[in-house]
Amino acid sequence: MRDVAYFMCNSVPTDVRRANEEALISVYRRTLESHGATLDEATAREQYRLFSVYSWIAATSTAAMGSKWQPIEIARPAMIRTTEAIDDLDAVGLLEERLGD
What is the model's pTM? Predict the structure, then answer.
């Protein structure tokens, strides 16, 4: 799910991600199953939400380096997309729920 979240949150335009993320998660799960691995829907969705934070960290770290790691024209939009994704997915709410008080 880390790879799915990284790709969807960093590289896919927000409107496309919103329209296709559920379908892509389903395809990913079916592909795993066809190779003998199982990942239930609830776990896949939760992992996707959690790994959106990973993709945000990667994108913001890259953007913070200016154009040293990646051209800023690529890094900045990725940072914006991942910020929108963690908001859409309520990733902070999930982290707060998982970490407790």
Answer: 0.89
